[in-house]
């Protein structure tokens, strides 16, 4: 058999995972994977290195609970599918309660090393400025939220679609030794110890009612904007204008935008005080609000402020965030920011195998993977890369690729992206989505039989466990085919 090439554009989480899957499924004399990455030759506003799978926002892959959480279920499915991202994530894990968080440097270096050492993978540095040449028979575009303008324009021209975008925000990171532990304390919410963590995975900074109200006032009246020309939605500069004009993704909502929605919004969101007890004050004096920080590297020398993504000007960030009790003398390793996230109208321009429906080169297959397809989140992006890598190999080997059942996390996410008939995910209403149980079909039997013989409708944890058990069982059946 003549050696065939699979070209993958973009070495983020999706592209890295796609390359790993394709290289492992194809023998060296059958398939060679060429992974193209423009960094560091062409930089982006958010990346800092040329490494593969660099994390530019949070360092958290979110919940690792595969029994009761849809994200944790996706983690478990990816592990069963030999995911490089999950393997290296485990090696780089740092304590984060029930979440999987990683040391971002250890993680990206681990992914890069694995890809560089794979005999079936070649990494080529340099920007791809247009649609792939017709000589590239099998291509995966996994350029992510910061697709270069030249390539984005080429995609828009070919598909006839205008570029769509929303904004991902980045939380600030603080040097641990600059936090005043006479005010702050270590504790996980409800003292939960899960995964590799303990019941003291987060640093907590308490606020009184007066401190909270002053903080909200300064947060909503601070100067911010810092939009680059490439990310400014329509020349808007004020908080009210940006709230109206910018299509923010709720999972990465800037803290000041949340605060502008009402004075109590943060106290019922990232600053909720429940499940925590201030050891400096005792049981009788509970905080009115809490700011939590999560470990950001393996050494524990850096902590990021949970939920505090922001677009305030850097001087304002320092001023306002030092109002937080315990952070009065904080030293910031990184201040917050906001970056563009581009996605395509996948239900309209991609088929069920994530292939571009309209391509000027008849004998060429172009697939899309990762956040550019309209999934949202690190592991979601990687999981779609995982699927496209396997799809591409099946094409090259002349085999039919059957997508996982929609009852699995992978199948449910693919169904959302490609506009499944059972979901409100069509070309008119399509929006990026994290994996969640709302994307899964309802249980075939939504009732359980009680010891007294009566039937009870599945709710809460029972319903979630039903989803995850079914998903893992159906995934195994799919793998066994």
Rounded mean pLDDT is 86
User: Rough shape?
Assistant: globular
Please give the alpha-carbon distance between the first and last residues: 25 Å
- Determine the number of helices (DSSP H or I, runs of at least 4 residues): 13
**Percentage of residues in helical conformation:** 25-40%
Query: Radius of gyration from the CA trace?
Result: 23 Å
Assembly state of the chains shown? single chain
User: Could you please say which CATH topology of the largest domain applies here?
Assistant: FAD/NAD(P)-binding domain
How would you summarize the topology of this molecule?
Blueprint: E1 4-9, H1 13-25, E2 31-37, E3 60-63, H2 70-80, H3 84-91, E4 93-94, E5 99-102, H4 104-117, E6 121-125, E7 138-141, H5 149-159, E8 164-170, E9 173-175, E10 185-186, E11 202-207, H6 209-221, H7 239-245, H8 255-259, E12 289-295, E13 302-305, H9 314-321, E14 332-334, E15 337-343, H10 346-349, E16 365-368, H11 378-396, H12 409-417, E17 447-449, E18 455-457, H13 460-480
Parallel strand pairs: 1-2, 1-7, 2-6, 7-16
Antiparallel strand pairs: 3-5, 4-5, 8-15, 9-13, 9-14, 10-11, 11-12, 12-13, 17-18
Helix pairs in contact: 1-11, 2-11, 2-13, 3-4
């Amino acid at each position: 058999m003549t050696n065939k090439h699979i070209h993958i554009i973009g070495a983020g989480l999706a592209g890295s995972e796609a390359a790993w899957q394709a290289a492992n499924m194809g023998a060296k004399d059958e398939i060679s994977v060429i992974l193209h990455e423009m960094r560091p030759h062409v930089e982006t506003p958010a990346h800092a290195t040329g490494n593969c799978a660099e994390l530019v926002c949070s360092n958290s892959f979110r919940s690792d609970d595969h029994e009761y959480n849809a994200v944790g279920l996706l983690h478990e499915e990816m592990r069963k599918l030999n995911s490089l991202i999950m393997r290296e994530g485990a090696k780089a894990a740092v304590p984060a309660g029930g979440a999987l968080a990683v040391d971002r440097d250890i993680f990206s270096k681990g992914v890069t090393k694995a890809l560089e050492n794979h005999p079936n993978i070649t990494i080529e540095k340099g920007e791809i400025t247009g649609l792939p040449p017709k000589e590239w028979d099998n291509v995966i575009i996994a350029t992510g939220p910061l697709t270069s303008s030249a390539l984005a324009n080429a995609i828009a021209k070919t598909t006839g679609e205008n570029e769509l975008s929303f904004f991902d925000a980045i939380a600030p990171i603080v040097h641990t030794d600059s936090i005043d532990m006479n005010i702050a304390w270590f504790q996980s919410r409800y003292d939960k110890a899960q995964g590799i963590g303990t019941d003291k995975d987060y640093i907590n900074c308490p606020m009184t009612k007066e401190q909270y109200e002053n903080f909200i006032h300064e947060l909503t009246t601070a100067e911010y904007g810092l939009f680059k020309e490439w990310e400014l939605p329509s020349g808007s500069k004020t908080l009210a204008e940006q709230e109206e004009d910018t299509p923010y993704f709720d999972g990465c909502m800037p803290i000041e935008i949340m605060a502008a929605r009402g004075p109590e919004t943060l106290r019922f969101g990232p600053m909720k005080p429940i499940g925590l007890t201030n050891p400096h004050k005792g049981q009788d004096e509970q905080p009115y609000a809490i700011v939590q920080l999560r470990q950001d590297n393996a050494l524990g020398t850096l902590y990021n402020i949970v939920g505090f993504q922001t677009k305030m000007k850097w001087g304002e960030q320092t001023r306002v965030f030092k109002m937080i009790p315990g952070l009065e003398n904080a030293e910031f390793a990184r201040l917050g920011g906001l970056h563009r996230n581009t996605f395509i109208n996948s239900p309209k321009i991609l088929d069920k195998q994530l292939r571009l429906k309209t391509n000027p080169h008849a004998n060429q297959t172009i697939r899309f993977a990762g956040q550019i397809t309209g999934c949202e989140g690190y592991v979601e992006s990687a999981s779609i890369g995982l699927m496209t890598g396997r799809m591409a190999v099946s094409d090259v080997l002349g085999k039919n690729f059957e997508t996982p059942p929609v009852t699995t996390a992978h199948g449910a996410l693919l169904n959302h992206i490609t506009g499944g008939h059972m979901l409100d995910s069509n070309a008119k209403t399509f929006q990026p989505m994290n994996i969640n149980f709302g994307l899964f079909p309802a249980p075939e039997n939504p009732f359980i039989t009680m010891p007294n013989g009566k039937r009870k409708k599945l709710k809460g944890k029972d319903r979630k466990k039903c989803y995850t058990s079914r998903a893992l069982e159906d995934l195994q059946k799919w793998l066994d085919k």
